[in-house]
Design a protein that fits this description.
This protein has 116 residues and is an alpha+beta fold. The protein is built from 2 helices and 5 strands. A hairpin with a 2-residue loop joins strand 4 and strand 5.
């Protein structure tokens, strides 16, 4: 059973792991306007919690998991070995199993239906 929720963005607590290659992510940006709420979305499925800063990131993650076979991740990278891994290389390998991949897709669909 998956759990889906959202929280107000707080730079002290939440990080954006998908927009940069930094190992610990980048602190989220708090909304400049008090009337516009900036949300951070969470999807907990198969023992792993995804954290998204925008609906577009959920769509990007769903597009990754729709593919059964993923292309090679070999590419030219900066010399710092810990700072070039894209977000999908840091995921647990068990999430790409067929049964878990279906659960992840279902949970991401639920999140998109709820807030997208």
């Amino acid at each position: 059973m998956s759990k889906i929720w959202r929280e107000l963005a707080d730079p002290k607590v939440h990080s954006d792991f998908m927009s940069s290659y930094n190992e610990g992510g980048v602190p989220v940006k708090k909304s400049r306007d008090n009337l516009l709420k900036q949300w951070v979305y969470f999807v907990n499925v198969c023992g792993f919690t995804f954290q998204f800063v925008s609906i577009e990131q959920i769509i990007e993650c769903k597009a990754y998991f729709v593919q059964k076979v993923h292309p090679s991740t070999r590419d030219s990278h900066p010399p710092s070995e810990h700072y070039w891994h894209p977000w999908y290389c840091k995921l647990p390998k068990s999430l790409n199993k067929a049964s878990n991949r279906k659960r992840v897709l279902k949970a991401l669909d639920c999140a998109l239906q709820k807030w997208g």
